[in-house]
């Protein structure tokens, strides 16, 4: 049996994987006030649990790219989804801060593999002019998962309890895993791809020898030393913490500073993430559109990133606004701009590196983002407990413009392998 438009079926699978990934990681923030009360945890205790996740995430993000390059997209993705789904379900058995932190650490070992694997799949299935769109589609799953988690987890918690919420969300990955193992192979091996569609694709995508597992040639230490790699690492170090802040701390902020209860968090905390979905898809589409209109690929990527970064400074004013609705609107701008930016930032490794190095480059860049998240999360816990949310929102508004300046300065167009 052949499936028409198989490339978009693969994109849908990647979108769903990222959606589940973020539902699993965000579930904790939705139930955190109730869980902290049950386990007698302070805000700083909560930040320690989050930090255990981010430590594992940072370490494994660097390693997950290498694993993806060694095992290939299909097997590596299956491994990572199996690990994080089991870890998410184990959250429902936690009995205190340290067991919760241990399960959170295990979740951090599995979840980062989603991104190098998804990016390698995009490189295998999409030509250069559509890769940012493919990246934007799977990254839109991050904001879709973040939008779904508050109402779904709040509903399950209110009608059952928070333990059942973790069991349900964790089990979703196992369903996805079965579909992945049935449907996924790269184009030259995929039994569901018609010969006619493959003939149209093969002239526009990288040849199989560039996109299949090739760990022998990955040269991951050499990749780490390249300007292309450490520039993206720095950019993600500064910008990923902004998304982590919204994901992990928005429900806390709404309940502590704006007087929301669990039901209100479920009703409103998802809204900024819908704007993130829009930003991922539009940002990914726009750079491809500019390339098709004749703009050089590197310039198109960087120009769209700059437009996204321009949306972020509104975050500085969010905690000063008089109503919760206005603060949520400001956070909507933050998530839209971040997604617009990231749809292209996370595509850069596929433009800058050969196929057998893509996973390693993405792994190192994601590790940089996770390290930034660790630092920012610890500082957030301190500022929230001892000062206020205002310094945190101020920093969130400035990081993307800074990262954008670094990309323009350190990655001139000559570093790009594909320029159109």
Task: Kindly list the characteristics that best describe this protein.
single chain; 18 helices; 0% strand; 420 residues; mainly alpha; Growth Hormone, Chain: A; globular
CATH topology: Growth Hormone, Chain: A
> Percent helix among the residues?
over 70%
The chain-level structural class is: mainly alpha
Q: How far apart are the termini?
A: 35 Å
- What's the pLDDT, averaged over the residues? 84
Characterize the structure shown.
By secondary structure, the protein is mostly helical. It has a single domain (6-205, 220-415), classed as Up-down Bundle (Growth Hormone, Chain: A), CATH 1.20.1250. The chain has 18 helices and no strands. Residues 213-218 have low confidence and may be disordered.
Topology:
Layout: H1 6-39, H2 43-71, H3 73-90, H4 97-110, H5 114-125, H6 128-159, H7 162-183, H8 195-202, H9 208-211, H10 220-225, H11 227-256, H12 262-268, H13 271-292, H14 297-309, H15 324-345, H16 348-352, H17 355-386, H18 390-410
Helix pairs in contact: 1-3, 1-5, 1-6, 1-7, 1-11, 2-3, 2-4, 2-5, 2-17, 3-4, 3-5, 3-7, 5-6, 5-17, 6-7, 6-12, 6-13, 6-15, 11-15, 11-17, 11-18, 13-14, 13-15, 14-15, 14-18
């Amino acid at each position: 049996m052949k499936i028409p438009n198989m490339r978009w079926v693969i994109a849908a699978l990647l979108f769903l994987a990222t959606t589940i990934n973020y539902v699993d990681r965000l579930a904790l923030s939705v139930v955190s006030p109730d869980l902290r009360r049950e386990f007698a945890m302070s805000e700083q205790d909560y930040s320690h649990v989050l930090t255990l996740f981010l430590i594992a995430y940072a370490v494994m993000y660097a390693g997950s790219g290498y694993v993806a390059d060694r095992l290939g997209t299909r097997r590596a993705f299956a491994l990572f989804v199996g690990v994080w789904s089991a870890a998410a379900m184990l959250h429902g058995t936690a009995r205190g801060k340290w067991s919760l932190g241990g399960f959170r650490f295990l979740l951090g070992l599995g979840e980062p593999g989603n991104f190098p694997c998804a990016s390698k799949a995009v490189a295998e299935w999409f030509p250069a002019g559509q890769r940012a769109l493919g990246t934007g589609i799977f990254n839109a799953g991050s904001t879709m998962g973040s939008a779904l988690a508050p109402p779904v987890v709040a509903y399950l918690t209110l009608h059952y309890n928070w333990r059942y919420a973790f069991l349900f969300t964790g089990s979703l990955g196992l369903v996805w895993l079965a579909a992945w193992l049935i449907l996924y192979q790269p184009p030259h091996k995929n039994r569901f791809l018609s010969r006619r569609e493959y003939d149209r694709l093969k002239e526009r995508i990288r040849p199989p020898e560039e996109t299949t597992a090739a760990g022998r040639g990955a040269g991951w230490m050499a990749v780490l030393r390249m300007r292309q790699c450490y520039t993206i690492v720095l950019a993600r170090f500064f910008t990923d913490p902004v998304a982590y802040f919204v994901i992990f701390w928005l429900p806390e902020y709404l309940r502590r500073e704006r007087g929301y209860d669990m039901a209100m968090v479920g009703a409103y905390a998802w809204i900024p993430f819908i704007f993130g979905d829009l930003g991922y898809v539009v940002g990914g589409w726009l750079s491809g559109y500019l390339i098709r209109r004749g703009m050089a690929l590197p310039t198109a990527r960087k120009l769209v990133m700059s437009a996204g970064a321009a949306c972020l400074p509104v975050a500085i004013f969010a905690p000063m606004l008089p109503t919760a609705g206005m603060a949520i609107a400001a956070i909507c701008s933050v998530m839209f701009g971040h997604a617009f930016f990231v749809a292209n930032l996370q595509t850069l490794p596929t433009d800058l590196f050969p196929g057998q190095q893509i996973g390693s480059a993405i792994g190192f860049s994601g590790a940089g983002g996770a390290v930034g998240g660790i630092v920012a999360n610890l500082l957030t816990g301190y500022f929230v407990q001892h000062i206020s949310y205002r310094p945190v929102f101020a920093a969130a508004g400035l990081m993307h413009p800074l990262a954008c300046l670094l990309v323009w300065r350190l990655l001139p167009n000559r570093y790009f392998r594909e320029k159109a």
